[in-house]
């Protein structure tokens, strides 16, 4: 019995020694998410426009139904999304939209600090997603 | 003719005596309250690191101002008295738990006699020739606060906490008291001052070497008596949602909190005085010796809290009545035989 007491005490004492803390002091230091981390979405741009061809595969596959796409045609006759909006309050960050995209126009970034003050601020439109 | 050196007393120099007394009380009280405040910080830091966390970090450098922030927060909290509570005892209980622990410090000697001019001032707030008895009496009084708090809150959990407190404290007080009996069988005095003097010759004269069993019993029973983990049955936040102090808020809760740490200081100081030579220990500075021992004990208590889970209630009672009590009694009998044989 006493042997176990001493074992327990020695374990806690070992942890007390410097260098055993696993805490990350969050706002001062941040962990870098892994490369496959699923954070905020980003629409991938080409030279003059977004890559997206408004094929509607992402809103179709989205289980949370948080993506709104309205397609239109530009002067060159290419399809492009006139409206592309993701409602982050509904998004579950499953990444299916990224997988579904045939032209790799959508990706997920390491951005995870998504808190905001107003409901409207969680609606990410095309302009914000292209950043 | 120069006046003779004399002990400052109330009858010969009432004003000087009062002044010296007030200074001593102020210093002791201030030091105890300061330790109480920073014991909370140390506890959170030490337990944090033992659990591979950091503890408070945001208030000033390494959270050093945390006790002040906590105090201010508790001070500005709403002071709630439940409508069905027994008002008088509800308000009285936190005071009744804090006061006995604070006044027990009065009989702890913290240094050799101080000579100022022609007067000798003993460094002890109150020299009582029945000091040990006083310790036991105050420890007994402490139970009332807990029980009253549990009962007057008029809540199931609080009541269970209070009832547990009474049973636990009564049974462990017995073993702790019997452990002390062995000490004054050796010292042949009940005065804390006398007990320190009896141990002051050298480190080897400390009673911890003559009474190792009594020392262990006293520390463990003391721990149980002040309701620290692993014996914090009255509080037991995981089963009784804080037990006797569930319904308390604001400064009343802060008083319970302070009482817990004050009790820790008191038990540490008593153990240091009775078993580790009090202030007379290794370095020539009395107060430093005593404080060092108190801090060592408090660190040990915090360490225990970080290590061991709470014992079950029946284990607690089993331990108290069937192991510690017979051990303490056997220790007294053996000590008695040895004392008679040696003399």
Give a description of the structure.
The complex is a heterodimer of chains A (131) and B (343). With 131 residues, chain A is an alpha+beta fold. Chain A contains four helices and five strands. Chain A has a single domain, classed as Alpha-Beta Plaits. In chain A, the strands form two sheets. A three-stranded antiparallel sheet of chain A has the order 2-3-5. In chain A, strands 1-4 form a two-stranded antiparallel sheet. The termini of chain A are far apart. The model of chain A has no long low-confidence stretch (mean pLDDT 89). Chain B is mainly alpha-helical and 343 residues long. Chain B has one domain. Chain B has a three-stranded mixed sheet with strand order 1-3-2, with no helix packed on it. The interface between A and B is medium-sized, with 13 and 14 residues.
Can you give keywords for this protein?
heterodimer; A: 131 residues; alpha+beta; Alpha-Beta Plaits; 3-stranded antiparallel beta sheet; two-stranded antiparallel ribbon; 4 helices; 5 strands; elongated; B: 343 residues; mainly alpha; 3-stranded mixed beta sheet; globular
Give a quick rundown of the structure.
The complex is a heterodimer of chains A (131) and B (343). With 131 residues, chain A is an alpha+beta fold.
